[in-house]
């Protein structure tokens, strides 16, 4: 599938850490990643500026290559230094993690550390990718994130209620 055919990621979801230290990729994100990856492969990388992760499917690889070319072209046009190797390492430094039919996956410790991931993940759709947050890190964000913070709080409360059997 080409990246141009991909419909994107939207919505929010919460996933508490489960048994064997696994997380679950929520259905709306799982289905979109499968569509974008021709299989069950989740790509994760640290967000360039925020204390969260960025998730996407494998079809984004070609889009990242085009982004690298555009950034280099702009840098040349405006006379700014551009280190293609460093920028390529930033864009393509993502890890690819398999997940099962239920969406369960194990996040490598070094990736968890980059976003301070502990006992739960908040997923927030962002079109071509989605962000994955430690809820405590999201709570520290300013009011530009008020909608995501409200959704996160609500989804955590819902998960806690379900966990108590109510």
Quick synopsis:
With 166 residues, the chain is an alpha+beta fold.
Structure report:
40% of the residues lie in helices and 20% in strands. The protein contains 6 helices and 8 strands, in the order ββαββααββαββαα. The protein has helices at residues 27-37, 60-78, 84-91, 109-114, 135-139, 146-163; strands spanning 12-16, 23-24, 41-46, 53-56, 95-98, 104-105, 120-125, 130-133. A 6-stranded antiparallel β-sheet has the order 1-7-8-4-3-5. The longest helix is centred in the middle third of the chain and has 19 residues, at 60-78. The radius of gyration is 17 Å and the shape is globular.
Q: What structural class do the secondary elements suggest?
A: alpha+beta
Strand residue percentage:
15-25%
- Count, helices: 6
Give, in order, the helices and strands: EEHEEHHEEHEEHH
Give a short account of the largest sheet: 6 strands, antiparallel
Euclidean distance between termini CA atoms: 42 Å
Mean pLDDT: 91
Strand order of the largest sheet: 1-7-8-4-3-5
What share of residues is helical? 40-55%
Rg (CA only): 17 Å
Question: Quick one: overall form?
Answer: globular
| Number of extended strands | 8
- Poorly predicted parts: none
How is this fold's topology laid out?
Blueprint: E1 12-16, E2 23-24, H1 27-37, E3 41-46, E4 53-56, H2 60-78, H3 84-91, E5 95-98, E6 104-105, H4 109-114, E7 120-125, E8 130-133, H5 135-139, H6 146-163
Antiparallel strand pairs: 1-7, 2-6, 3-4, 3-5, 4-8, 7-8
